[in-house]
Amino acid sequence: MAYRGAQKGRSPVSRGKRRNRGLIVAIGRWVLVGVICLVAGKLAFSFGGKVVMLAQEAYEQRQDIAALREETERLREQNAALREEMRKLNTPGGIILEARKQGYGFPGERLLVVEPPRDSSLRSE
């Protein structure tokens, strides 16, 4: 009974093998962690650029949407103004006024067309 391990059925070599086995398992775990990190890094870099591009596109689309909303509001206001002008022109007085602006008159009327002076010295007097 010189060696305790021998009593339990173990030889002195088995203790060293256990240490080596534990070291191999630890190294294997670190290698596995390294491989996982490399794969995750590769995925992050490959998809990261795409995510940034998608974010930029989304930002540009939001700007386009805002510009289109402003244009839509401007066109609605213009449409409302044109409808109001159309409503005014569809009255008898509006028709007569617009006809006179275009140079028309009633039968028997003489139209007098006055043109502005061409010489700027006459304007200042």
Descriptive overview:
The chain has one domain. It contains four helices and no strands. The N and C termini lie far apart (137 Å). By secondary structure, the chain is mostly helical. The protein is rod-shaped.
Which labels suit this protein?
125 residues; mainly alpha; 4 helices
What topology does this entry show?
Layout: H1 4-7, H2 12-89, H3 92-101, H4 120-124
Average pLDDT taken over every residue? 82
What helical percentage do the residues reach?
A: over 70%
Q: What is the molecular shape? A: rod-shaped
Assign the structural class, choosing from mainly alpha, mainly beta, alpha/beta, alpha+beta, or little secondary structure.
mainly alpha
- Largest sheet descriptor: none
Strand content: under 5%
Concise account of the structure shown:
It is built from four helices and no strands.
